[in-house]
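Q: Could you fold this chain for me?
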Amino acid sequence: MTADASPASRRLKDIGAIVREVSAAPNLQSALRVVVSQTRSAMEVDVCTVYFANDEDHRHVIVATDGLSSRTVGKVQLSFGEGLIGRIAESKRLVNLDDIPPALDQDFLRQTGESEYRSLLGVPILYKGSLQGVLLVRQRTKRQFDFSDEALLTTLAAQLGGAIVHAKASGEWRFICRSFAAKHFDGVPGAPGVAIGRAIVVGTSVTEVPNRQVADKQAEELRLRAAILTVKEEISTLRTTLSGDLHASDLALFDAYELMLDSPELLTSALAGIHEGLWAPSSFANAVEYYATQFDEMGDPYLRERATDIRGLGSRIVNHLLGQFNERESGSSPIILVGQCLSALDIGQARTGNVAGLVSGEGSSLSHVAIVARALGIPAVVGLTGLPLFQLHGQELAIDGTQGRVHLQFGTTLRNLLQRCISEQRRVDETLEPLRDMPATTAADENVQLLVNAGFEEHPQADLVAGSSGIGLYRSELPFLLRDRLPSEHEQQELYRSVLQAAHPLPVTFRTLDIGGDKSLPYLSDGSEGPADHYRGVRFMIHHPEIFLTQLRAVFRASEGLDNLRLLFPMVSCADELDHALRLVDLARAQLLADGLSPPRCAMGVMIEVPAAVYQITPIAPLVEFFSVGTNDLSQFLLATERTDPLGDKLLRGLHPALLQVLHTIVQSVHRMGKPVSVCGEIAGDPVAALLLLGMGIDALSMESLALPKVKWALSRLTYQRMQSMADEALRCDRAVELTRLMCSIGNEIGLDAIAARTIESSS
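A: Sure. Below is the predicted structure, expressed as structure tokens.
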């Protein structure tokens, strides 16, 4: 068997594809939907479910599922410490069962109404060791999940951990938790905006057409050809009608519909069914489903979404055959078109009608129905699993196309909140969007260096550093974590080259491998090395020089001719460790020189994460060109918190006075040695914390790219002089509560509430 055909290789491709879709998701709910649907498909299981750990209620709550009823979302809640979910969460370890003990699954079966499942694979969702939830798959038949299954689920759980923490920080988490009390369905945002109206359910899906036998085969063939011709005429008419509203690229979608209908294979397959005695609706539906399935199996998300378009077009023809199609009912009151698989043809006529919004059980943001809805400015929600279509007909609905939510029951309060939320969000987007690609400057036009963190992109795009001064922290662990073996020098070189090229000519600060602790490599474990933090970063690499040298050679080869590489060594605690690392750098250069290459010189720096390094700046500074402070790890070491300590998470929220004092000490020591210092922890992306860091003398901030516009907005409100006075005041705060109050006051002063993300509180 070739390497490409191995389960590990296939799983790696699955992981890469799902990670890309999760990264592209506009919010956490969309990301969760991608995870459960794609994981279920990739692993070929009956159910994939995500549980959140609700610390306030001490319960694990289903927040996303594919395979269970959508009614279980927010409703099924399992107590901490109980059942299989409790076992996974409490132990923070993977559980793989090929024969589930019935006693451990009773509460789940009772709440969901499901029959028994035989097999289960579940992993904890962790972020820096802190439990966020559980990701779990189930199978009704007996199955022993293998190592590649475990690797896929573990990697996706790690991806979700960061997304959940980000949602908590942004307020989306609070919105999700509060929404459990509301009666709603969550799908995928198709087109932004709010719409309220009476639901009109459109037609029948191709997957719902019953098979019937007919005697008059010729009549059925004529009916089918007539329905296809009718839909072709609709396509032509709509293209003309919408030509003034849609761009050429959007109008091309209707050309794609015509090409589908002109497919000889599709018609031949449908006619074959009729000639075997099937009536036209089921014969055509079967042909459509067969071809749609071919697209379902494609890896590319855009190509895969064409399956939805084929089904939508097929449903349009089927409904003409069934005589069930009504464009819209008479009257002027707003309506919401609802269907299992709406097509762009269903919504195209909404431009001049009373259609206020769209709900499609199938589809994604890449489907034609979503693309056209956005172009026409019609709010749309797509991809709603388990939507009870025919229970909705005639019921008043409220849809939020921005969040991807359909409310089935709501009152005046929620109605007002939805409308206000959308109008405010549009204003926020209008305010922040122009700043995304603008230089970062203060109110006095003083330039500020803002960089981005990167390292989870398999295929870096040209806009990787858009709106920034470069990459302030490139995490190089991805090719090591996504394999069941060490990546080769060539594999690393290709990835690093793509990153350096995407950022060129801006600098890329490349952090050498930071493995150990919570980022261990199971294929390197020999049983003698624990996951302790003392065996991380440079210390790990010193003990594995062959790994370090391979990575160094790869990145030096990758940087040839670009001249934008900066090396950053993590977890350095003293000058002796740095000396050892630098000797390995020299050795890697010598090896390349021996191969006839001329590796370029680059700036080298040290990451201050270990408290001991704060007091080693003087001997370290002559050996490097810059310093970077990793406040995430530094905070934990400084405040004596464990990653698994639930109380530690509370201590690490916000900016602690002790951390502020240490940062001030670092700035003074580094500047005294004539070197620059940056911060690349989470606090760098907090608008108020960023002001304080810059005010105390931090030279640059590196953050997630999503934080750039908001930080730029905050910077534009103040001068450096005002930031310095704020930092001085913050340094005088002895208690965390005092610092928190000051930061709130600063936020009010700069009008931070005006750009804060709003959450929608559901009300009945």
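A (continued): The CA atoms of residues 190 and 370 lie 5 Å apart.
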